[in-house]
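Problem: given the chain below (493 residues), write out its structure.
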Amino acid sequence: MISQLVMKKLLQSTLVAAMSLFAVNSFGQMANGSMAPTLNLTDLNGNTYDVDALLAAGKTVFIDVSATWCGPCWNFHQTHILDDLYSQYGPSGTNEVMVFWVEGDGSTSVAEISGSGSSTQGDWTAGTTFPMVDDAAAANALEIGYFPTLYMICPSRRVWHISPSEVGDYWPVATHIANARACTNPIDAVMNGYTGETSTCGYVSQLKVKVQNKGVNTLTSATITASVAGVTVASKAWTGNLEQFQSAEVNIGANTFTSDTDVDFTITPNGTDVAPSDNLGTQTISMAPEVSNTTLIVKVTTDRYGSETTWKLRKGNNAVLSSGGPFTDLAANGEGVQADVTVTLPANDCYKFEMIDAYGDGMCCNYGNGGYEVTDGNGTVLISGGQFGASEQKRISYGVTSVEDESAVAGVNIFPNPSNGVCNVTMSLTKNEDVSFRVYNVLGSLVSSRDMGTLTPGEYIYQMDMSAQAAGVYTLVMQTNSGVKSYMISINR
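Solution.
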């Protein structure tokens, strides 16, 4: 019996052959940074190529592993991107790269590569300028998990996998050659995306990014900053040990937001970065929508693979308030409308809604137009989605505004600051307020919290004992009905 995971991968092609399952060695690609296997390729004209020798000569090698029956493979092939790459940068151009097309399904024939037979999308040789190879053993050696797979192999023999989604976007030649040249760059730090929270009720404890080393030299240190309108709001002096093409997640720090804000992220390695254009990234941090009453309604429509889909609604302390799924699979591609789930919010808080897909391809749109909505009791849509990877998280605010109402909460003061670990927080309230405190370290980890309950108008003092914590800088977050406010506190000994 073919597993659901395998079947789903096979359905990504427009022409599926049952025997194609056995043409693929495994369903996990070679990890980026892996050492390439020894490959000797013979093309359809009988010419033999020693890939190790090409790499030793300083060339970067691109290998497109496809199957003649594979629709997405054919679509990518027809863009002739790799022909353009080969023409400009291959042996007849700058001689920096070599390109191969490999038919990886052992059950197909050479005739099908030329367009004859029932298991082919057309004549693959038409207009192809680079060597074409019929070699399922090479595909197995490269641990091909699905078709198409495009690998870039650096002169160091390190393998870089260009993902199927990137292939589907038909990357321009300029991008390919930029990646190829990165194989020989000594220092090339890359800002590779934002991985922290994208919505907030005012405070983000972890502005997290993914950084990557594309340089040949090991990346051991860098400065990573987050800035708003040119002003740095968080900074991290990162140290580590990233070999070429390895990545790491880095928590830069925390910040309070009062409106939808574009945050710019920059990585600056120690040493001269030969490609500084990829050191930058931008992410919009959005304010969480405000629910007008205590009722939330979760509406879910799955695609064919409902068993992959789950959701969770979490309170501000990360405890799960409600959840749903996994759901039932459909017999064919389509939409599975699930029963609405009504949730009553117990208290003022900053809630987090998580939508999860176990396979990692979201709920839309290859196998049905799935998606989700979370509405309030009046039917107003607060958040929605469906096109994501493994998961997405969005905040919903109930009774928590992003900007502190100074008429309600005033006179906030922390003393002594710096302290030896024990300090006092004073404040003045002009109306009833639910007050809580949370303290985070520089890594964004919660180290202390206290719920003060509902306080009446008046003057208050709260003694905060952090004597058990190490010396350093911490962030105190005070949450009330009127808003969220953060303060920096220092411990010196």
